[in-house]
């Protein structure tokens, strides 16, 4: 800006960004941006717009139309293939290596389930993209990438689209009318036979198809699992079908007990395994929390968030069905003296970075800012490749674009992970999740629980870690099982980041965007931490003879307190 003395106004001299496509990830994942088209954003072939495009918000990007074979073993349409895309600016953050031929680069991506695309140049450089493809841009001076798609995406090439439309238009109405009549009769018979309804439910459940209502139109009450879908592909199922999948909620299928009820393992007709969360009728999570969780997760698309497959609201039951995570939750490894050995240094760093990416998506890249409010080790699920996925959105809250903070007189969450302003005053914001992430980061590095840790001088793990840091003994915080493989500089960096996240003053804590930058970019200079918030976790007790503080949290239990205002 320049000050124009004559006119007594500021004049624009230079501004950035000049174009929409210069804004980072303007079109979201798996979408290409072009400054020369009216809509700017267009989904890549094989992908469809996410739901928020209907509200003219394209930042949510696009989602895969057909899952890759290695992502979904039920897909039997042949091996995944690659689509060539020319004249594009490379997405950010590729993995780079040297190869002797293009075929080696192709195979490297083909054999990796996490690889979404690759590129190769004549100098022998191979670029692999394991994360979502962000910041793609159509440019005449761009390069060529190869996008991995399901084989069935190649069955109807673009050249046949015109023929398909012609055939669809000239189909005689005399064919459609009898078909409608037959379909109507079929629906009548289906409703009359309970056993057919159940088998159809389970079959649709297997295929993850929509047989229910939009999550925004949930009708609460008996028989609510029937409805019409308008704007969300979200299956709702009968209690009988869910019961059949879990062998009538047998004890053998029980995976564990959460804060709101038991979780069961279910098996569909095609062999796919699912996790079934059966909310206890005496739990604090009622219909509002159920609707909240279903509406939130159904609209979220990120590799580090658990995928919700459907739900059941019938005969007083409230049930959620998720993708099954083979390795269950992070706490089952982290705090087990034997199983923690499976979490080597590389795996723990991968888990930390994955959690950070998931929380960043909730705070910044989803359509509405979402505060999780119950981020803890037992709510981090691990798939067969030890990739973390954030779960349990029953306590989450949505914020509008201009909202920064909210308050509540119903404090929900887990002691040890709650920020001081939330635990004491009911104030929560994105910085509340940042605090929880900092605690989780220290637990992951040390292999110890925060509130379950005691010694003669420290209230909890945070206090213990802070004392070690002040005494220049931070290396002693590391889980002893990792002492021969951990990177010392990365360890010090992670501890520093954790301390910044658990600052007593919410204003002093970084955003998750800052956290991701600090974790992934060694060139980012880290500020020194100030005063940590850990003294508030001491249980108030005037008994001077009490030798140690009470544990006020269990990692797999969520606590709700009602406070007067």
TrEMBL record:
Per its UniProt record, what SUPFAM superfamilies does this chain match? Hairpin loop containing domain-like (SSF57414), Protein kinase-like (PK-like) (SSF56112)
Q: Which Gene3D superfamilies match?
A: Phosphorylase Kinase, domain 1, Transferase(Phosphotransferase) domain 1
Q: Which EC class is the enzyme in?
A: transferase
The UniProt record lists the keyword Transmembrane: yes
Give every Apple domain span: 70-150
- Which GO cellular component term is one of those annotated? plasma membrane
Domain Protein kinase stretches = 249-524
Q: Which UniProt keywords apply?
A: ATP-binding, Disulfide bond, Glycoprotein, Kinase, Membrane, Nucleotide-binding, Serine/threonine-protein kinase, Signal, Transferase, Transmembrane, Transmembrane helix
Q: Which reaction does it catalyse?
A: L-threonyl-[protein] + ATP = O-phospho-L-threonyl-[protein] + ADP + H(+); L-seryl-[protein] + ATP = O-phospho-L-seryl-[protein] + ADP + H(+)
User: EC number(s)?
Assistant: 2.7.11.1
Q: Which InterPro entries match?
A: Kinase-like_dom_sf, Pan_app, Prot_kinase_dom, S_locus_glycoprot_dom, Ser-Thr/Tyr_kinase_cat_dom, Ser/Thr_kinase_AS
Q: Which PROSITE patterns does the record match to this protein?
A: PAN (PS50948), PROTEIN_KINASE_DOM (PS50011), PROTEIN_KINASE_ST (PS00108)
Write down what this protein is called.
Answer: non-specific serine/threonine protein kinase
Q: Which organism is it from?
A: Dipteronia dyeriana
